[in-house]
Amino acid sequence: MKKRLLWLLPFLALLLFWLPISSEAETLPAAPTHFYYDQLGILSNQTKDLVENKGLVYKEKKEQPQVVLATIKSTGGDDIDGYAPDLFEKWKIGNAKEDNGILILYALNDGARNVRIEVGYGLEGVITDSISGNILQQAKDDLKSDDSARINRGLQQVFNSVTTLIDKNYDYPADEHALSSDELAAIEDDDSGGLFEIIGPIIFIIVIFIVFGGGGRGGRNGRYRGGGPPFIGWGGGGFGGGSGGGFGGGGGFSGGGGSSGGGGSSI
C-alpha cells in the first residue's frame, strides 16, 4: 500500500504544477487580431480607427514599434502591475529585436478602474516610469470616471501621448494627433532623477533573488515553482495556445516577439 502511494506522489506533484498554468491560460485573453482589444465595449469607432491606423503605420517602419490598447473586465484577482507583464508576454508586443512594445491596459476590476502603461525594454529610456506616471495623472479624471465617453477620451489621450514620444524617439513625422510642444514638455518633466533609473533594475533583480532564491514558490497564480529566480528573458516567436487561429482582415496586429521590461506606471 505504501509503495503504491509513493508511486502516486510524482503524479500528484505534476498535477499541482500544471493546474496553476492551466488557470493562468484561462485568465489571460488570447492575442487580438487588431491593435486594440475592447472586452468592455467602451472604445469608440474613432478610437479604434486611431489605434489601428497608427499600428499599421508603425508596421511599415524599420523599427516596427507596437502600441496595443486593451480594456478588460478583470485582472482575475491579480494586481494590474503583475497582470500586465504577463499579458504583454503572451501577446508578444513589439519588435523582437527592438523590444519596443507598449501595452495600455484598462481593467474595470469591480469599479476600481485600474490603468497601466506597460513598457517594453527598448523604450524604457524613452517612456520612463516617471513619464508614464505623468501621462496617466494628466488623464486620471477621465480614466477614473464611470462615464464610458470620458474613459474613452482618457484612453485616447494616453495613446496619443505614448505615440508622440515614440514618434519623437524614432524621428517619425508627427501626425495630426501629436501633442503640442507644451503638452509634450509637461509629460516629459521627469522628476524621478537619473539615479533611480540606473539603480531601479538592480533593486528589482535583488528583490527577485530574495523572494525566489530559496523558496521555489511565487509567480502569478503560483505558476513558478522551481528553485532560484524565475526565467525572465522571454523569447520571440509566434503566439502559442489560445483560440482564434490566424490573423485576418488584411493586416492588423500580430505580435512581433517583444518583451516587457517591467517598467511603466499604474493608477
Automatic annotation (TrEMBL):
Residues 37-161 form the TPM domain. Keywords: Membrane, Transmembrane, Transmembrane helix. It holds the Pfam family TPM_phosphatase. InterPro entries: TPM_dom. It comes from the Bacteria. Gene3D superfamilies: 3.10.310.50. The chain crosses the membrane at residues 194-215. Signal peptide: none annotated. This is TPM domain-containing protein.
